[in-house]
């Protein structure tokens, strides 16, 4: 097994305990065989991409966290306005992107200082 992902089984055990679930419950919810789940938890196997995705959805954690335990990885759901802004931003040149970033930074710091003065 890849040592990079050696803690997957332990993280799955933690999630089972935290959520008060049995392996069979997760197998049913994720559509994963009992044998595969047992192998993941015992550390004999690392979940493939599809299984990892399904497990992350069942436990509402990121796939990255399941694999690595890195808690700094966050998944943020974007609203429609944010998605539209991101699409527009991606269509800009590098120079225009830099200008927008500077403008956002300026606006952010202005709003923070206004809130601090109230």
From TrEMBL:
Entry keyword set: DNA-binding, Transcription, Transcription regulation
Keyword DNA-binding: yes
Species classification: Bacteria, Bacillati, Bacillota, Clostridia, Eubacteriales
Occurrences of domain HTH cro/C1-type (ranges): 12-66
Annotated protein name in UniProt: Transcriptional regulator, contains XRE-family HTH domain
GO molecular function, one term: DNA binding
Pfam families the record matches: HTH_19
Source domain of life: Bacteria
InterPro entries: Cro/C1-type_HTH (IPR001387), Lambda_DNA-bd_dom_sf (IPR010982)
Cross-referenced SMART domains: HTH_XRE (SM00530)
């Amino acid at each position: 097994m890849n040592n990079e992902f050696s803690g997957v089984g332990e993280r799955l055990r933690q999630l089972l305990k935290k959520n008060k679930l049995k392996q069979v419950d997760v197998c049913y919810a994720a559509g994963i065989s009992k044998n595969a789940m047992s192998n993941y938890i015992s550390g004999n196997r690392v979940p493939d991409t599809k299984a990892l995705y399904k497990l992350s959805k069942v436990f509402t954690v990121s796939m990255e966290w399941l694999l690595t335990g890195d808690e700094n990885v966050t998944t943020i759901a974007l609203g429609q306005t944010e998605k539209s802004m991101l699409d527009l931003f991606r269509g800009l040149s590098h120079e225009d992107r830099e200008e927008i970033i500077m403008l956002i930074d300026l606006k952010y710091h202005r709003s923070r200082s206004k809130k601090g003065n109230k």
